[in-house]
Automatic annotation (TrEMBL):
This is Rabenosyn-5. It holds the Pfam family FYVE. InterPro entries: Rab4/Rab5_effector (IPR052727), Rbsn_Rab-bd (IPR021565), Rbsn_Rab-bd_sf (IPR036531), Znf_C2H2_type (IPR013087), Znf_FYVE (IPR000306), Znf_FYVE-rel (IPR017455), Znf_FYVE_PHD (IPR011011), Znf_RING/FYVE/PHD (IPR013083). Keywords: Coiled coil, Metal-binding, Zinc, Zinc-finger.
Length: 439
């Protein structure tokens, strides 16, 4: 530092003779040796000053470092003792929640607006997509105008130059220019599922070559926005363990209702002495209802045992589902009508058979009386009599019996009832023909 005038103070590596600023100690020494060599005393003093300063800087005493370190530790300890000894007073605070919410909402609104615009374009693209490649390209350009790439020399994403091998391509949603390596392809089936969540989803995955030919070429930004919307849709449509168990339980209940109705119908048929069903069929239906009851009981227990905080709405709902399932099993599935015994069934069928025989005898006597009252005259022998083995009614009855046997094996008792009714009609018709031929 030197004083050039009374009012001006200069700082730096200044020459004591000419007051020139040499920026460094080496430059100052060289300057003094070349221009002011006659001042050897001053030059010697300069070298001594620079040597001592260099020695102090490079060869710092360890004791000084230790004292400095101890002093710092002492000050730190004193500050900690001060803060621990006195209770700290809460100062002025400021909440930035509103600012963060404003920034977040603005950003979300911008992304939502951009995503909705892309989804509208995606819907127009996949709707009525032509199969022909030339027509498809024209359709894509009509929906989303493509940017003019005549002045674009580099790919905006990877900054590589376009040439004969690296051709220019366009994003089908925003129309921007990109190269093939920076392109991402979206499957058309996934695109249709995104714009229409109710449409059936295809689980087939296309290989990369097929996807490049049939998929939509997108830039990475548009693909990320569409993929984010797809993830949001999947998370909303994803079913929890409780929902899945409840839906399975409701499905078993829906299967149990017609099974119980069919069981009651089959029991009533046995009590009426009908031959449509037998005791084996009714026992099989009862076993099926028992399995459905076991499944409903197991699923309701799983729902009730799912972890939930006591007293919360979820816990009360789970307990209510369990109680409702237990009540349904007890009142509707386990309180079924008691089956009749084999002796009771045989007795009822014998009585029913006797009533049918009496009706047949009465019908036969009536037809005989009608034949006797007809005009006298010899009746020509009938040539239309067929052998019983060749009777088409018997063939039809045998076929229906085979169908009934198959339906019983597969527990399709509603179909058994319909086939048994048809068989009864054929039997009545066959008996009527027999009575007519005898008379």
């Amino acid at each position: 530092m030197a004083a050039a005038n009374d009012d001006e103070i200069l700082e730096g590596f200044l020459c004591p003779i000419c007051k020139a600023d040499l920026k460094s100690a080496s430059q100052l020494t060289s300057h003094f040796e070349s221009l002011h060599s006659e001042e050897q005393d001053v030059l010697k003093s300069l070298k001594d000053i620079f040597g001592k300063a260099k020695k102090i800087i490079l060869n710092n005493d360890d004791n000084d470092l230790k004292e400095t370190f101890d002093r710092a530790l002492k000050l730190n300890y004193q500050e900690q003792a001060y803060y621990h000894s006195q209770e700290q007073v809460v100062g002025v605070s400021r909440s930035s929640t509103d600012y963060f919410k404003a920034v977040r909402s603005a950003r979300l609104e911008r992304y939502a607006t951009e995503t909705n615009k892309l989804l509208i374009r995606l819907d127009k693209l996949v709707c009525n997509m032509p199969t022909d490649q030339n027509m498809r390209k024209q359709h894509e350009q009509e929906v989303v105008p493509w940017l003019d790439g005549s002045s674009v020399k580099l790919c905006p994403n990877c900054a590589k130059a376009f040439n004969i091998t690296r051709r220019k391509h366009h994003c089908r949603l925003c129309g921007s220019i990109l190269c093939h390596d920076c392109s991402v392809f979206l499957d058309l089936n996934i695109a249709r599922a995104i714009v229409d969540p109710s449409a059936p989803k295809s689980t087939e995955q296309q290989d990369p070559e097929t996807l490049e030919k049939t998929g939509l070429r997108l830039c990475e930004h548009c693909y990320n926005l569409v993929e984010l919307r797809k993830q949001v849709q999947d998370s909303r449509n994803a079913k929890t363990v409780l929902v899945t168990a409840y839906e399975q339980m409701r499905s078993l209940m829906e299967q149990a209702r017609p099974a119980v109705a069919m069981y009651e119908k089959m029991c009533q048929s046995l009590f009426d002495g009908e031959t449509t069903y037998n005791l084996t069929d009714v026992n099989a239906m009862r076993g099926r209802i028992g399995k459905l009851a076991e499944g409903i009981d197991l699923l309701s227990k799983q729902i009730a045992a799912h972890p939930a905080d006591p007293g919360t709405r979820q816990a009360r709902l789970q307990n209510a589902i369990r109680q409702a399932a237990a009540h349904y099993i007890k009142e509707d599935l386990l309180s079924l009508r008691k089956l009749p015994t084999e002796a009771q069934i045989e007795e009822v069928r014998r009585q029913r058979y006797e009533r049918a025989e009496r009706q047949i005898q009465a019908e036969r006597q009536r037809m005989e009386r009608e034949a006797a009252t007809q005009a006298a005259g010899p009746s020509a022998p009938s040539d239309n009599h067929q052998d019983d083995d060749d009777d088409p009614l018997l063939e039809q009855m045998n076929i229906i019996r085979g169908y009934i046997k198959e339906a019983r094996k597969e527990l399709r008792f509603e179909e058994v009832a319909i086939l048994e009714a048809n068989l009864k009609e054929l039997k009545k018709e066959y008996q009527f023909q027999k009575l007519s031929s005898k008379s």
